[in-house]
Amino acid sequence: MINPLRGMKDLTFDESQRFVHIVTTAIGVAKKYGYHYIETPILEETALFKRSVGESSDIVGKEMYQFEDKGGNDVCMRPEGTAGVVRAFVHAKLDRQPVKQKFYYYGPMFRYERPQKGRLREFHQFGCESFGEGSVYEDFTIITMISQIFSELGIGFDLQINSLGCTTCMPPYKKNLVKFLTEIKDELCEDCNRRIETNPIRVLDCKNKTCQSLLANAPKLITNLCQECDSDFNKLTALLEKAGIEYQVDTNLVRGLDYYNKTAFEFVSNDIGSQSAIAGGGRYDKLVEFLDGKPTPAVGFAIGIERIMELVQMPELQKEGIYLGAMTEDAVEALFPIATAKRKETKVTLEYASKGFKSHMKGADKVSARYCVLIGEDELKNGTVWVKDLESKEERTVLVEEF
Ligand code: HAM
Fold first, then answer.
1. Is the CB of 105 under 6 A from ligand 1?
2. Of 28, 35, 159, 403, which has fewest CB within 10 angstroms of its CB?
3. CA pair distance 255, 273, nearest whole angstrom
4. By alpha-carbon position, which residue is closest to atom 18 of ligand 1?
């Protein structure tokens, strides 16, 4: 038997139903907010992720499924969706159109991480990217939209937010932070020491307990924001409060991808173990420009589908559609035209083997059909079908044309 690769899994019956329910619910909400579907390739030039997610990030530095294809191109299985969507946006010259554009997508992402509960090497995201709107109102709207998706799926969450500032306030803060980190360098872990050089903001995110306690006194960006970022962040928190969406400000929330500025957020669940982030996102106003497009503000998020699968409350299975069966061999083929006609309006399960009454009733129950429809010798002769409504228990015999 050949097993799936480590960190990858099949989605079989129960899980695949959950998957479809999550995606369908999320699409329903995204459409209400004006988002359109976008599909981008799974395989991209490695340079795309180096330039967007960032060379110093763990995703690019350690986790990429990167290889040379048969044409000698350096390619990579996408570790996330935003970079590809931005590349597609620029490629289609949508950055030159005056209208705001909003896209949703879902599909597999690949990160060569150490697999554990909630952490896969192939996982699926549902994501949204909104282009052309620089107002913090859009950040609020996106957070509202994620809350609506989780509420429709019956999932509780904690929301953590932060501001990562902009090109005015981030550089002087970074300088200050590096100064602080250099002073405590010898006490920080190896990873942090490497990051002081490559990406000092990520040091704040270190999970090492000693580092965390040393970092308690680190300068905080949230108290050093420029006027615009500060005012936007205050607006966002005020809007969340008015809307009754609870949040915590986490000044160490820096996200693992380098393209963010201003608003950054994560939705977390306490019910799924240590890999608790169920969605993450934020603003990335410089990325379109960085990938050779015209300056275009943007904000987006992605939900980790596998992480919320076991949290989802599935709707109760409703009896639905028709079970069609024959009680004599001769009647089997008379079922086909009925099935073809009825499949235009509802789900039809057609049993090819002729069977006794009890067997058919069991079959109809197994597939949760609303109606059990049978043809026996008499029905075949009279051009009728026998119909039982499995909810009301009513039975009747009707002409095929009238069914
Ligand atoms: P991210 O935080 O890296 O953001 O991933 C989003 C979500 O994907 C996480 O919150 C988590 O639920 C899920 N996820 C990440 N890695 C794994 C894994 N190894 N196994 C299972 N689930 C995982 C992004 O990817 C950004 N592109 C989000 C974004 C869109 N920002 C702006 N627009």
1. no
2. 28
3. 19
4. 119
Residues 370 and 392: their CA atoms lie apart, in Å, by 9
In the beta sheet, which residues pair with residue 43?
A: 77
Q: Model's pTM, two decimal places?
A: 0.93
Report CA(365)–ligand 1 centroid distance (Å).
40
Which residues face 293 on adjacent strands? none
Q: Among 52, 79, 49, which residue's Cα sits nearest to residue 63?
A: 79
Position 290 pLDDT exceeds 90: yes
Q: Which residue lies with its CA nearest to atom 11 of ligand 1?
A: 304
Q: Are 177 and 165 in contact (CB under 8 A)?
A: no
Query: What pLDDT was estimated at residue 14?
Result: 87
Q: Which of 79-83, 254-258, 290-294, 350-354 has the lowest mean pLDDT?
A: 254-258
What pLDDT score was predicted for residue 392? 96
119 CB within 6 A, ligand 1: yes
d(Cα 299, Cα 130) in Å, to the nearest integer? 5
User: Strand locations in 219-378, DSSP E?
Assistant: 248-249, 261-268, 277-283, 298-304, 322-326, 348-350, 371-375
120: Cβ below 6 Å to ligand 1? yes
Q: How far is the CA of 109 from the centre of ligand 1 (A)?
A: 9
* 304 CA distance to ligand 1 middle (Å): 6
CB 241 within 8 A of CB 249: no
262-273 burial, b for 16+ CB within 10 Å, e for fewer?
Answer: bbbbbbbbeebe
Task: Evaluate: CB of 158 within 6 angstroms of ligand 1.
Answer: no
Q: Exposed (0-12), middle (13-18) or buried (19+): which is 24, by Cβ within 10 Å?
A: exposed
CA distances from 298 to 85, 103, 128, 214, 286 (A): 11, 11, 11, 34, 8
* Residue range 176-210, pLDDT digits in tens: 999 999 999 999 999 899 999 888 999 998 888 99
Cα of 148 to ligand 1 centre, how many Å?
A: 19
Nearest CA to ligand 1 atom 30: 301
